[in-house]
Amino acid sequence: MLMTMSDKIVSPEQMQAVYDEAKTPYKYGVILRGDEGNAVDCPSVFRHGDAWFMVYVCMNKVGYETHLATSRDLLKWEPLGKLLKFRDAGWDKWQAGGTISLQDHTWGGPATLQQFNGRYWMTYLGGEHQGYETDPLSIGLAWTKSPDKAEEWNRLKENPRLTPSQPGVRDFESTTLYRSNVIWDRNETLGHPFVMFYNGKQVVNKRSTERIGMAVSEDMVNWTRYGDAPVIDNLKGISGDPQIVRMHDLWVMFYFGHVWKPKAFDTFACSRDLVNWTKWDGPHLIEPSAEVSAFDSTFAHKPWMIKHDGVVYHFYCSVHQSERTIAVATSKDFSKP
To answer: Which residues constitute the domain of residue 189?
Structure first.
């Protein structure tokens, strides 16, 4: 049955209910720093066995590598080692920033990773040039049998899977492709089991804009762009780093914004069909602290959100001047007994 325009729009009351469910007013603080002052970024958190794990990105002056950390309580974290390292050659020689794929996306669910073809999966942005996200970047896939081990993941020989130079690329992704999140939609809402959301960059007259679009797949290897336009477009600046969860009867996309409102912050949008998204226009889920000396006074952005035992944990990249760390905010005040 075709959806009417009113069916495609999520009501203000439902949007408010999502905000009330997801808000995390208590900033616990920095939980992870890079070795030797290196910047860390882009957390994605999952449960495996009896422990929690975080896949995150470290930039050691020349490019991105992907690392793993572990925790028992989601607050105290121990780095374990690298999952995607620099390579001697290739399209992803100096950039490999990974994000977990196929997590159980049920809000308040187990937050575990699902296997497809006996493998655990991640997507990663990759590039052959040194520097901070130097254009062009493309999207590759990697897999492992042991997501709790700090060992190199297996990169697909067919990589990269999506690039800004492929035939059929859309205008909004014609310069670079950034961070992606893949869900396993077993109801096949769009006619495919695997749906990827990612932000792409377009540069026009030296003005850079990032928007969020989609691709779909039957086998996690071969991907087709879905639709002619982005699904999240705030017209300027950055809309990026989407994370998709299923909250009751709604799809919720957590993502970050920059430039189209002051500083960098986390917000969300909601959808009934994965294609038409209603953007939240109320208070940010996370924003920089007002105190100039605070650990996140410059930026507070790039969300990964988990609800566990009734508590919401909002992991994000916290920036104070030139120091880039990973922090968490929660729905419970852990400073109180």
So the answer is: 40-287
Q: Enumerate residues 6+ apart whose C-beta is below 8 A from 195.
A: 182, 183, 185, 189, 214, 215, 216, 226, 244, 274
Indicate the pTM of the whole model: 0.97
Residue 311 lies in a domain: no
pLDDT in tens, 155-214: 999 999 999 999 999 999 999 999 999 999 999 999 999 999 999 999 999 999 999 999
Domain tally, the chain? 1
Instruction: Output the domain CATH number for residue 243.
Output: 2.115.10.20
Indicate whether 213 belongs to any domain: yes
Torsion of CA 112, 117, 118, 119, to 10 degrees: -60
- Confirm whether 78 is domain-assigned: yes
Q: Backbone dihedral region of 295: left (phi > 0), alpha (psi from -120 to 50 degrees) or beta?
A: alpha
